[in-house]
Amino acid sequence: xxxxxxxxxxxxxxxxxxxxxxxxxxxxxxxxxxxxxxxxxxxxxxxxxxxxxxxxxxxxxxxxxxxxxxxxxxxxxxxxxxxxxxxxxxxxxxxxxxxxxxxxxx
Amino acid sequence: xxxxxxxxxxxxxxxxxxxxxxxxxxxxxxxxxxxxxxxxxxxxxxxxxxxxxxxxxxxxxxxxxxxxxxxxxxxxxxxxxxxxxxxxxxxxxxxxxxxxxxxxxxxxxxxxxxxxxxx
Lengths: 106, 119
What we know:
The complex is a heterodimer. Chain A is about 0% helix and about 45% strand. Chain A is built from no helices and nine strands. Chain A starts with 8 loop residues before the first strand and ends with a strand. The mean pLDDT of chain A is about 95. Chain B is mainly beta. In chain B, about 5% of the residues lie in helices and about 50% in strands. Chain B is built from one helix and eleven strands, in the order ββββββαβββββ. Chain B has one helix spanning about 65, and strands at about 5-10, 10, 20-25, 35-40, 45-50, 55-60, 70-75, 80-85, 95-100, 105-110, 115-119. In chain B, a hairpin with a 6-residue loop joins β4 and β5. The mean pLDDT of chain B is about 95. Classes of the chains: A mainly beta, B mainly beta. The interface of A and B includes residues 54, 84, 86, 93 and 99 of A.
């Protein structure tokens, strides 16, 4: 089965830039989506097709995908960006989520 | 604006059946993949399965989940159903219904989530 690997946690200071990686075999050949998930709320799609932002998503969110790694980057990180972030792909018609990365804004 | 509203029993006894319903409001029911995702306490998101309005569906590749799972639709009511039989404590989770898109466009609308406890 296909696996996506994310670091359990990353931290960033307010106003700084943070990158959250997601790795998988030949990941660059697949479309990657990213979700933001805050406690007690439903997940939110923040990036699709590697680097496209849904309508209303702030421009400080960006994405890339090449080789074996996809990356979600948040520029000018704000306190409200503190959440769990999950990468996601499709593999043989099934949806695969990464294990999630907890972003802490210190 | 698309809204997904879900409901079902929050407490299920071991070996009984978990049943959830998700109603879709404010958007088309066709050409989407109606999806169920769950999150066990303290763990990450886990995709359960999906079905589209053509009746084509895919389920998790986890055998212990797959053989107990039924996802169905009522296109006349724009509703999606999840049934999971013979539940155990390992099925305790927040369950989300959601709308999936083809072509790498992601899962863009989610229900509010339902905590189901098996005890």
